[in-house]
User: Which sequence fits this backbone?
């Protein structure tokens, strides 16, 4: 089921990107020959509307838009024959649509999940055979105190546990309306990835209104986009490890997806990444096409189509090689998740 959700969600984000191009082209009077769900070869022609074929294709990993005269300015009504401002509008629309969807997902997440109550600590999960499991702790138990010290944050709980490794401690938790007191001994040498108690810790959440969700969603969106843009700078300055800026392929993304409790966090981050990455001035990407449109606006001279098409073809070939390399690295050198 996780794999199905991953594929459908990723395909939907790519399709949304292409739908942005399609809507902008229609609004700006650029003719569109085909809007495809999935990638060719074509499975079936669904219908035709206003000269555009809507098709369903065999490879279910996104979609595509084929504007009329995309690379040939001699074709009337086509994209390449349109003014540079029209072309910019169509090119920007895909990434903007991804960023907009990222914001919508962020707002929806905060509205549905609520905000964290940072002065309370909740058991997220209990590892089988761990001290916490033997003491009878359960997921969603709320820590009240440890050794008679009130627990007002995850940091306080972790500090108390670190001070009592190998020593019996008294743990008081709230389970529904019940207050339960038990004892356990934190391990000084726990199995890798389990921790002394063998529990996952988190903060509980409380509902928030739509206005607060909108405000927090916008803040999270800003921080997400800012983080993507500043990551190379942080790596260069030594503030982040190179591994944090590593590109991952489909397997790497799925590995990350499996570790998240709410898939919407993943799709929000990917939507922002798709929007920002497509705006990079790299040939064959939207950003590369946008960059090559500026000379026509600034000096009123267009780059000859044959040169522009060659640049994009070369860029596409290099991107394809990079994509193959990244996906191979997912298997040869898998990402290390915390």
Assistant:
């Amino acid at each position: 089921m996780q794999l199905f959700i991953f594929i459908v969600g990723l395909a939907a984000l790519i399709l949304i990107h292409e739908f942005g191009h399609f809507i902008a082209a229609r609004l700006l009077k650029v003719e569109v020959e085909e809007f495809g769900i999935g990638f060719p070869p074509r499975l079936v022609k669904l219908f035709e509307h206003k000269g555009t074929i809507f098709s369903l294709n065999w490879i279910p990993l996104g979609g595509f838009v084929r504007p009329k005269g995309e690379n040939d300015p001699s074709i009337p009504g086509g994209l390449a024959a349109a003014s540079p401002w029209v072309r910019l509008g169509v090119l920007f629309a895909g990434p903007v649509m991804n960023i907009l969807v990222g914001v919508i997902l962020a707002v929806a997440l905060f509205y549905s999940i609520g905000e964290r109550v940072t002065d309370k600590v909740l058991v997220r999960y209990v590892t089988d055979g761990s001290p916490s499991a033997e003491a009878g702790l359960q997921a969603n138990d709320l820590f009240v105190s440890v050794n008679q010290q009130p627990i007002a944050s995850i940091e306080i709980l972790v500090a108390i546990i670190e001070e009592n490794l190998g020593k019996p401690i008294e743990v008081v938790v709230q389970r529904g309306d019940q207050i339960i007191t038990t004892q356990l001994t934190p391990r000084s040498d726990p199995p890798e990835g389990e921790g002394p108690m063998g529990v996952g810790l988190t903060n509980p959440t409380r509902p928030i209104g739509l206005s607060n969700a909108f405000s927090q969603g916008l803040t999270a969106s800003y921080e997400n986009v800012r983080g993507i843009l500043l990551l190379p700078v942080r790596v260069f300055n030594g503030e982040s490890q190179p591994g944090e800026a590593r590109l991952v392929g489909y397997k790497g993304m799925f590995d990350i997806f499996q570790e998240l409790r709410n898939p919407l966090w993943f799709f929000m981050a990917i939507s922002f990444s798709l929007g920002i990455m497509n705006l990079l001035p790299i040939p064959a990407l939207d950003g590369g096409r946008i960059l090559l449109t500026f000379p026509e606006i600034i000096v009123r001279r267009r780059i000859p189509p044959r040169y522009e098409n060659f640049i994009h073809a070369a860029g596409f070939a290099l991107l394809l090689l990079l994509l193959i390399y990244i996906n191979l690295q997912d298997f040869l050198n898998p990402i290390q998740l915390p």
